[in-house]
Write a structure and sequence with these properties.
The chain contains six helices and five strands. By secondary structure, the chain is an alpha/beta fold. The protein has one domain: 3-Layer(aba) Sandwich (Cytidine Deaminase, domain 2). Strands 2-1-3-4-5 form a five-stranded mixed beta sheet. Strand 4, helix 4 and strand 5 form a beta-alpha-beta unit. The longest helix has 14 residues.
Length: 144
Amino acid sequence: MYIVECVRKMYAESLTCVAADEDGIIFTSKEKGIKPMLDLLNMYEKGECKPLYQSDMIIGKAAVLIADHCGVKWIYADVVSEAAIKLSHERGIDIAYREKVPRILNRNKTEEGPYEAELNGVDLDDFSLVMETVREVAVRLGQL
């Protein structure tokens, strides 16, 4: 199964995100934040890939929603929030992880991460609204 290959590659090459389809690795990134997921989404929407497996260093709600939209069925996370685990199960995505945390924190570890915080109260079934919110945060943080 390619999820194992994704995880091995992520750790061996110090990557932040790796995705694979039924034929092997199709995407890798060393970018931080939500940027790798936005890049993967862009490739998916252009018809360049159909990811099924993904490994990522940090998975929160936004990452799960993007992965679900792209058709990912298996996720491995180094660190994952409890909300992301719940959302994964609701969306039919199998998820494994090294560490589960109550919530994803910002880079200073002083408060909830910006994507997790901004998605509180947003209708998570409305992917357009989710992406509008994610892109607004990404622009504000200089990640787009």
